[in-house]
Amino acid sequence: MLPIGNYLFLSFTLFTIGVIGVLTRRNVIVMLMSIELILNAVNINLVAFSRYWGTVDGQVFAIFIITDAAAEAAVGLGIILAFFRNRQTVLADEMDMLRW
Amino acid sequence: MLNAFLFYFFAILAVGSAILMVTRRNIVHAAVFLITALLATAGIFLLLQAEFLFVTQIILYVGGIMVLFVFVIMLVNLDVSLQLVQFSRQRYVAVALAVVLAVQVLGAFWVGRTSVGAGPAQAIEAKNTEAVGQALFQHYLLPFEIASILLLVAMVGAVVMGKRRI
Amino acid sequence: MNAPYFLDHIWLIPLFPLLTAGLMLLAGRRLKNPVISVLCVGSVFVSFLYSVGAFFQLLSLPVEDRVASKHLFDWIPAIPFHTLAGTLGQFRADWGFQIDPLSAVMILIVTGVGLLIHVYSTGYMAHEGGYYRFFGYLNLFMFSMLMLVLGNNLLVMFVGWEGVGTCSYLLIGFYFRRKSAADAGKKAFVVNRVGDAGFLLGIFLTSALLGTIHFNEIGPALAAGNFQAGDPRILAIALLLFVGATGKSAQIPLYVWLPDAMEGPTPVSALIHAATMVTAGVYMVARMNMIYLLAPAAMSVVAVIGACTALYAASMGVVQNDIKKVLAYSTISQLGYMFLACGVGAFTAGIFHLMTHAFFKGLLFLAAGSVIHALSGEQDMRKMGGLAKKIPVTYWTMLIASLAIAGIFPFAGFMSKDLILSKTYEKDFWLWSIGYLTAGMTAFYMFRLVFMTFYGHSRVGHEAEHHIHESPKSMLIPLVILAALSVAGGWLSWPEILGGNSRFIHFLEPVIAVPHALRAEAARGPGSQTGEIYLMLLSEALVLAGIFLAWYVYIKRRELAERLARAFGGLYDLVYHKYYVDELYDALFVNRAEDLGLALGSFDTNIIDGLGVNGAAWLTRFVSRLSIWWDTWIVDGSVRLGSRIVWVFSWPVRMIQDGLVQNYMLVIVIGLIGVLAYYFHLAHSMVH
Hints:
The complex is a heterotrimer. Chain A contains three helices and no strands. By secondary structure, chain A is mainly α. The longest helix of chain A has 31 residues, at 57-87. Chain A is elongated. The termini of chain A are far apart. Chain B is built from six helices and no strands. In chain B, helix 1 (2-23) packs antiparallel against helix 2 and helix 2 runs antiparallel to helix 3. Chain C has helices at residues 5-8, 12-27, 33-59, 101-124, 131-150, 154-172, 179-210, 215-224, 232-248, 257-260, 266-275, 280-287, 289-292, 296-319, 323-343, 347-374, 392-406, 412-427, 429-454, 462-466, 473-488, 503-508, 516-522, 526-556, 559-567, 569-576, 581-656, 661-687; strands at residues 68-82, 88-99. In chain C, helix 9 runs parallel beside helix 14 (296-319), helix 14 packs antiparallel against helix 15 and helix 18 (412-427) runs antiparallel to helix 19. In chain C, a hairpin with a 5-residue loop joins strand 1 and strand 2 (88-99). Chains in contact: A-B, A-C, B-C. The A-C interface holds A 19, 22-23, 31, 92-93, 95-100 and C 654-655, 657-662, 665-666, 669.
């Protein structure tokens, strides 16, 4: 196994790219995909540490995260679909009804 | 030797796909790049001898979630030419903040570079899946059940969200 | 008390008419005419009977003692005070009655002639509306007049004085729907009021000077105070009282209301403006003779005004064309005679003439009413003529009355007028000459009236001509009775030089406080008697000349009247328009009073209403606007200020929630950076 730093660095890079994607893109589908990217980065982190300590807890946690990501993707995409049917838009800038 | 090569291969693939995903104008392209990023991540898992997770990643993430994404992308596919502006107005601020975050984390890495070693040399027992299963159904049974309820709720939610008339 | 019945009950005499008057004015509307007639005429009849009874019972008393008084109740209790003469006096007024020869004569005249006129009115007013009202007012008048003559003090007399004035107003304006009638009533009352002011001042001065206003106490007070003849205070009292008399009895300058008063129904003119009310002034002067005898200057004033009024009014009577107006001026003129008599000291002669005048003037008015009734309302003599054969009773009675007023022997007027003229001759030649001349004019205008009305060709209008009829018995019987009285009334005081005993005069004498010296002078020797015969013949000659002149102008050569009028055009116009005195009074007083009224009215409208009422309204609106401003800006403002403060402070917080999820995530990242910075700092400080 390589020094864990490599894996951490990789995780960090993917995380940062994912954050930039969420904050920057107007299209909510791309936003969601960026969030998946963030989750993946976290998974890499967890599995790296699981390998480092020699336990499987990290991996179990990663499974749960994947499960959660699936659920969230399903519901989130359902919401996007409903919103699209109503407003014909998938741009985050145009989804500002819940304002003051 | 092979480890390092594979690692760098998968790492560059992942990072590159991620960057491309975030910057593509065409959403379908972005989805495809995400798939490749996820596949690269699966590879990383394999390198870390997490075989179960490797398979789970491919089946669930790529085979399930990304398919779902592609479905929805097809359903909301607007004319690309209408979307002239891809990036929101806060992009500069966002990038700046991300840079600040990066600097912070890198700073933390740099400070703690010496405290993390190479890791234990011993190999892990070969049966990864069995270990995961044992841990999952013994120590983590409650979260498991909760996760199943979570999936139930998500399923109901998705069905409801998908209906035209509630 | 063992007083004789009628004398003890003289207070009932005014009471009977008062009761029926009250009944009429409260419930008369619902009563039928015959009931009203019986009640009202009946009450006057009963008063007349009581008056007759009182008179005879008075006669039964010895001559020096012919005064009876009856005190009903204390009206104004005694208020002691110091008089101007320094003695202690009391202001006190009883509701009391006094009967002596003077008031006995007056009540007989008032109730007697009044009764006849009431009977006449039942016929005259039979077809008029307001029958009950007429008799109610008439009875109220009887009450007032009787109170006037029966009162035992000046204040009760004043009550009656005002009462007759009020009834005169009510009755003159009886046909109140006619503006001229209403105006005439107003004029009578206002002019009377001017006189009444003087009368009241006289009453006050009497009380202040002598300490009493009761008739039987004034004489003793005068004696006790040692007032000399010519005392200016007594003169003032006498003149002030006379002012009241000029108002009530229509002398110069307050006579102007009497001709206008002819707007009232003819019985009213007969009773009030001939026989009774207008004589109240003469009665008052006679009653207060003790005051006047101590103020020779005042008596001169009375005599002069009386004489001048007599001549002045007679001149106006000559040219009038309305039958009632001629009689009105004639009344003023004859009242002048009465005052002339009082002014020269012959108070009893004045009262005598008052009595005979009541008979023939009352008759003249009633007969004139009969003529008007026969002609269906025509009053202009130029539209009469040739009525002698058609309404004989009216004609004969009117002729008798005219002979009486002209002063033909032996009718009533001759006796009284001759007495006045002879007494005047003894005092002053010029006054006598005025009276003499007036007698001639009186004869002239009266027979002018008779000739124009009853003789010659008929100038009556066509419709009236067909309806000429003699009046009903209720109207004719009083005419006949009065005619008899006009003939024989003077015989009560057959002049001594012609063999009579002047019983009437002697009957009244005790009332007059003539000092003994004057009384001796009055009983002169035969020299004066011869003079008196000459005077009689002279006046008879002038009277006959006057009648002849009237016959000549109005029967023999009719066109002479118009030619004379045109020849003396200016003079004729002046007299015809009553010397423009009414216009003068209008300019001096009436229009000035109206101006004052208008000025006060505009003051009320512009200043009181404008400033006060409208100003108050403006002020209210102004205050309400202030209030609105306060409410809107201060009270509401503080409420809105509170909400605005909350809004201002909540603005930054509000801006945070803009609905954009990416912004929220940005904030999360910022928070993340912050948390990490905190932990790294913590870790850093722990390491070092």
